[in-house]
Inverse folding.
């Protein structure tokens, strides 16, 4: 049984009502249903969300300790959290895949969103496809030999 951690940062608990013109109308429980429906046989989806940087860092440490692949939407932490970057680097330096995802395309938005401090240590980045960004990341994680 393979587990995949799907970690979501600040304000993503508000999906469904948060800026639907940017993020759509669906919420995180709907994302969980979508990923569970598409996950390959024998893969479990552990989807979590927090507004707290320390909690997110702790979950990345857990990924290292359990050798669990990560799909990470760091949300606003993407743009400035070196603490999160360092924790994400522990994951990829341990040889565990970590795919950075975004629902929107940050590069087509405000200038401050054009910088990601996470991308440089991520295994790969998928952005701009709505919830399909997570689905594409799940496919990518499944194709990486571990
Ligand atoms: C986001 C993009 C970020 O710039 C923003 O702060 C978010 C969501 C996305 O999924 O498109 O909270 O990560």
């Amino acid at each position: 049984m393979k587990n995949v951690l799907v970690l979501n940062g600040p304000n993503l608990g508000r999906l469904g009502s948060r800026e639907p013109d940017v993020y759509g109308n669906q919420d995180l429980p709907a994302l969980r249903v979508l990923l569970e429906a598409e996950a390959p046989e024998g893969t479990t989806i552990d989807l979590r969300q927090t507004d707290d940087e320390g909690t997110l860092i702790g979950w990345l440490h857990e990924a290292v300790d359990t050798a669990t692949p990560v799909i990470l939407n760091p949300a606003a932490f993407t743009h400035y959290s070196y603490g999160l970057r360092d924790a994400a680097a522990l994951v990829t330096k341990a040889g565990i895949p970590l795919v950075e995802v975004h629902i929107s395309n940050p590069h087509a938005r405000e200038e401050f969103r054009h910088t990601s401090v996470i991308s440089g240590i991520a295994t790969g980045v998928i952005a701009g496809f709505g919830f399909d960004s997570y689905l594409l990341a799940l496919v990518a994680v499944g194709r990486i030999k571990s």
Remarks:
- DSSP finds five helices and five strands in the chain.
- The pocket of DQA is lined by residues 11, 73, 75-76, 78, 102-104, 106, 113 (CB under 6 Å).
- The chain has a mean pLDDT of 96.
- The two ends are 13 Å apart (CA to CA).
